[in-house]
Amino acid sequence: MPNPNDAVSDIATLERIYGAPAAASIKKEIAYVHPCYRKFIEAAPFVLLATSGAGGLDLSPRGDAAGFVRVHDENTLLLPDRRGNNRIDSLRNILHDPRVALLFLIPGIGETLRVVGSASIHIQPDLLATFAVDGKLPRSVLAIKVESVFFQCSRAVLRSHLWDPSKHVSRDDLPSLGNILAALSDGEIDGLKYDGELPERLKATMY
């Protein structure tokens, strides 16, 4: 266990350890969605949404067809909130603290895109209708005011072999969701029943 007394506790020490950032690391960050960055957003079928609230931090995966996060203009992104578990942790946090961060991932691409901004929650019927899939509307849409956008180089993805099929893990090597729920609920939830019903439930509740 690391000794807490040895933890780095000041900026000067950090800067001495890591040195100055390269010029490209500074120049890549801008305060709007440049056309080059827009292409990344429109190609991404998956984004991680980070929020902060009274109860702490939350990091939530969001996914849909590529481009599901809409670039309304160079200062605004629109993110539909599809069906989920109804915990609404991210939305609760946004009501408390509108600051958000997003990390866009594109299958097969090493670089990721980071966006920082502030979000508000909207439920206007005409807006929701523009995000309909198979006639089904999102519950709400996040309007994200962009404050910072920059790309992250591919080192992390390359080190992790994230997109390398030969490194993919078999689902059978990990506990099933039913097994996890049965264990955490001391058997109150029937794990076999949960696992058996899950595939059809996912199909029926995708949107």
Task: Characterise this structure.
With 207 residues, the chain is α+β, with helices and mostly antiparallel strands. Helices cover 30% and strands 28% of the residues. The protein has eight helices and seven strands; from the N terminus they run αααββββαββαβααα. Strands 2-1-5-6-7-4-3 form a seven-stranded antiparallel sheet. β3 and β4 (76-81) form a beta hairpin. The mean pLDDT is 96.
Explain the layout of strands and helices.
Elements: H1 11-18, H2 23-27, H3 35-43, E1 46-53, E2 56-63, E3 70-73, E4 76-81, H4 89-96, E5 99-105, E6 112-122, H5 125-129, E7 140-152, H6 155-160, H7 177-184, H8 191-204
Antiparallel strand pairs: 1-2, 1-5, 3-4, 4-7, 5-6, 6-7
List keywords for this structure.
207 residues; alpha+beta; 2 domains; 7-stranded antiparallel beta sheet; 8 helices; 28% strand; globular
